[in-house]
Write a structure and sequence with these properties.
A hairpin with a 7-residue loop joins β2 and β3. This protein starts with a helix and ends in a 16-residue tail after the last helix. About 25% of the residues lie in helices and about 25% in strands. α1 packs antiparallel against α2. A 4-stranded antiparallel sheet has the order 3-2-4-5, with helices on one face. With about 180 residues, the protein is an alpha+beta fold. The chain is built from 3 helices and 6 strands, in the order αβαβββββα.
């Protein structure tokens, strides 16, 4: 029972930290008017630091989607980027160019833009524990851009930037969004 309690405690802490991570990433992205992939990688580093001091065996990914409703038409994902390609997970909102499912009661005015940030974290029990099974934590947050109607995104072609590690922290420990 003690080990089951520890495992459930781990799940609760990671669940709360996942909430903080999607909220923090959405807040940071929504402050940009134009963003480059190296800016996004720095934001992903900041998100990984939210979980830096919490050790667990798991993997995770953050996906940022920019959704715009044109003056005449339905909302579409105009760009999307992920913190990693190491986890075979697709956005629950769809891909760039797709019409995303919006939450119930959430309406976008013509010309409006929102940034949606999703996280998927796969949690495995730390110890063999038949009472606690592997779980996936999924969180999403929605943000309106604050400095521009839309956020322009430029994917750099510089491999020294694009290969920047965004899962290693100063302590050398690997964080969840690697």
């Amino acid at each position: 029972m003690l080990f089951s309690g520890l495992e459930y405690g781990q799940f609760t802490l990671v669940d709360q930290k996942a909430d903080r991570a999607v909220s923090a990433v959405g807040d940071m992205v929504s402050q940009y008017a134009a963003m480059r992939s190296e800016d996004m990688k720095d934001i992903f580093i900041a998100a990984s630091n939210i979980l830096e001091h919490y050790q667990f065996t798991g993997s995770g990914i953050l996906i940022v989607s920019h959704i715009h409703a044109p003056p005449a038409g339905i909302p579409k994902i105009t760009w999307q980027t992920a913190s990693s390609s190491s986890m075979a997970v697709s956005s629950k909102l769809g891909h760039a160019g797709a019409t995303p499912p919006l939450p119930a009661g959430f309406a976008m005015d013509a010309g409006a833009t929102v940034v949606a940030v999703e996280t998927f974290i796969k949690l495995e029990p730390i110890l063999f524990n038949p009472a606690v099974k592997a779980r996936e934590v999924y969180k999403i947050s929605w943000h309106h851009p604050r400095r521009a109607e839309q956020i322009a995104y430029t994917n750099t072609a510089d491999p020294s930037i694009d290969s920047k590690s965004h899962g290693n922290t100063k302590s050398g420990k690997r964080a969840v969004f690697a």
